[in-house]
Amino acid sequence: MAETLSDAVARRRTFAIIAHPDAGKTTLTEKLLLFGGAIQLAGEVKAKKDRIQTRSDWMKIERERGISVVTSVMTFEYGDHVFNLLDTPGHEDFADDTYRTLTAVDAAVMVLDAARGIEPRTLKLFEVCRLRDIPIITFVNKLDRESRNPFEILDEIEEKLALDTAPITWPIGLGKNFSGTYHLKHNTVRRSDADVEPIAVNGPEADNVAGLLPEYQREAFIEEVNLAREACRPFDMESFREGHLTPVYFGSALRNFGVRDLIEAIGDWAPVPRAQEGDSRKVEATEEKMTSFVFKIQANMDPNHRDRIAFVRVCSGRLQRGMKAKLVRTGKQISLTAPQFFFARNRITADEAVAGDVVGIPNHGTLRIGDTLTEGEDILFRGVPNFAPEILRRVRLSDAMKAKKLREALQQMAEEGVVQLFSPEDGSPAIVGVVGALQLDVLKERLKMEYTLPVDFEISRFSICRWISSDTKGEVDKFIAAHRGDIARDLDDDPVYLAQHQFGLNYEAERWKDIRFTAVKDYQ
Ligand code: GDP
């Protein structure tokens, strides 16, 4: 018998990994995919990295990220569960992409380097998860190297993140003596991830636990485990789901320790696909009718096929191959002829994806970030954010004959979320905005490679950009009329006010009390 929708939804776990660069996100991803059977050999991901020829800095960054070049979502199965792992760029210049991706997950795995603890990017990404009430499972990585004491790491999480911790496993030894993970509650051991099933033991003092350590370390280890059991907080599901408590696992992604413990934790504890807030109502994942939204667009994933993939999070129902869906922004129907599932190296056409799944929809520019697709209902999912750019530039083109081509190219890049594009009301050339400087390198490189448009950037006289709105009718029009030279329109034709400096913005905000100047806009 075919699986019911609610059974299928209940098996889904959709999550992202958040980490400071170098903590081990890529290595952990490879191992998760390996145990999930999505790749044969963990080395394959790296092999792929080396084949990709690149030039500029941004591409190097992408290459170093390896797997992310290939795809932004990876689907795999382990045990009874279907996992959708969404990749997030590690570099902070691509922060807006990361924030949008986090709108599409139900849980996050926070990877810490056991010697470094909480690092700046970890903190930032954690704050985004907290804002969205995303429950977090912690994986303390690199225990095979010189590490801090586990208690010290737990303290740091509690202090820096104001997050309760509940250690679930405990490392048996550290550094070169690291020899496995001990489950504090189940009294089981995994000596490495080669142990598919954990081994039942008599307690920390057993030969196959403390006995794995050099004699002089055994007593201290047994004491530590007893202390962890008595003094640490027990795991509490409600507190975890509300984002107040994180279960903590220890391991080494590189050396195959603790990764199975982690996958099982995601399966057991990460929430099933959550209900999504629409503009008119909340949509439950188990509703029969399909709804979904686009949180990311990726172009040219495969240089041999110039395609553009919209990544869609299914919010409810089943997204079936060949179905027609309504694109709510335009009211038009589109055919979902070839939705794709992504694995580590390949993609397959998906006959059906259910709520919680993330699929790629190939298209030629019909879909934009933030778009909602439904089976007819006029509902919009909000919350895929658009951040005011921090760097504004004019694009200079040496060949004036190509101005039209440039406009089209910039429009496409803006729809993909590579840059934001603003058209000044006074008709002067377009301004591009980015959150991080590397995004400008991406833009330049892609305009050259894909559109043969060599460009340079000129400093614009503006440095700040704010969306403007008002509850008072006519107020925005009045403001625009009074500031025509400082107004531009974004991709949706919404007006922004461009200021030369913070002082200028404060001055206008003081004078125009009925106008809201906002630094974040939800895509609609
Ligand atoms: P990312 O930047 O977070 O994706 O980090 P990577 O997965 O690329 O790892 C950064 C470096 O740390 C690489 O040289 C990895 O081989 C290494 N690494 C990752 N996990 C471990 C681990 O568990 N133990 C040790 N010793 N090295 C690790």
UniProtKB/TrEMBL annotation:
GO terms for molecular function: GTP binding; GTPase activity; guanosine tetraphosphate binding; translation release factor activity, codon nonspecific; translation release factor activity, codon specific. Residues 10-274 form the Tr-type G domain. One of its GO terms (cellular component) is cytosol. GO terms for biological process: regulation of translational termination. SUPFAM superfamilies: EF-G C-terminal domain-like, P-loop containing nucleoside triphosphate hydrolases, Translation proteins. It comes from the Bacteria. CDD domains: RF3 (cd04169). It holds the Pfam family GTP_EFTU. GTP binds at D87, T88, P89, G90, H91, N141, K142, L143, D144. InterPro entries: EF-G-like_DII, EFG_III/V, G_TR_CS, P-loop_NTPase, PrfC, RF3_C, RF3_dom_3_sf, RF3_GTP-bd. Its main location: cytoplasm. Coiled coil: none annotated. It is found in: Cytoplasm. Keywords: Cytoplasm, GTP-binding, Nucleotide-binding, Protein biosynthesis. Increases the formation of ribosomal termination complexes and stimulates activities of RF-1 and RF-2. It binds guanine nucleotides and has strong preference for UGA stop codons. It may interact directly with the ribosome. The stimulation of RF-1 and RF-2 is significantly reduced by GTP and GDP, but not by GMP. Belongs to the TRAFAC class translation factor GTPase superfamily. Classic translation factor GTPase family. PrfC subfamily. HAMAP family: Rel_fac_3. PANTHER family: PEPTIDE CHAIN RELEASE FACTOR RF3. This is Peptide chain release factor 3.
